[in-house]
Design goal:
alpha/beta, 36% helix, 4 helices, five-stranded mixed beta sheet, globular
């Protein structure tokens, strides 16, 4: 299956659907889409990996570098057992949330408190 990627905005998140093989030939496109998704004013990036059949070190590199440079939460949902094992072996599960299904990911997102604007604190001299 050739690589395909789509994005959609939902309330509070950008959903990224990834299909096929994420390898050296497709990782640049993946990186562009993920970077664009992170420019959206949302708190979450949700990656639907249910049809992702393979992820190479290039794809992993984009996920790792992305998760380290942003303050947003990244959730990967529906990954196949093969892809889940790669995430676990590489330690990527320490940087992202990994869910069995999209419904689980949406539940995590819905149950996480929304960040509140920080109040301005003043100190007396």
């Amino acid at each position: 299956m050739k690589f395909e990627i789509e994005t959609a905005r939902e309330e509070g998140l950008v959903a990224v659907v990834v299909k096929g093989r994420l390898d050296a030939s497709s990782s640049h496109r993946f990186g562009e889409v993920i970077s664009h998704a992170l420019n959206e004013p949302t708190a979450w990036v949700l990656i639907d990996a249910s049809e992702l059949s393979y992820i190479s070190s290039d794809g992993l590199r984009y996920l790792v570098s992305t998760s380290k440079r942003v303050s947003r939460q990244i959730v990967v949902a529906g990954a196949t057992p093969r892809v889940r094992e790669v995430f676990k072996l590489t330690g990527l599960v320490r940087l992202i949330s990994l869910c069995d299904a999209m419904a689980d990911a949406h539940q995590i997102i819905a149950s996480t408190p929304k960040p509140q604007a920080s109040a301005s604190l003043t100190q007396d001299a």
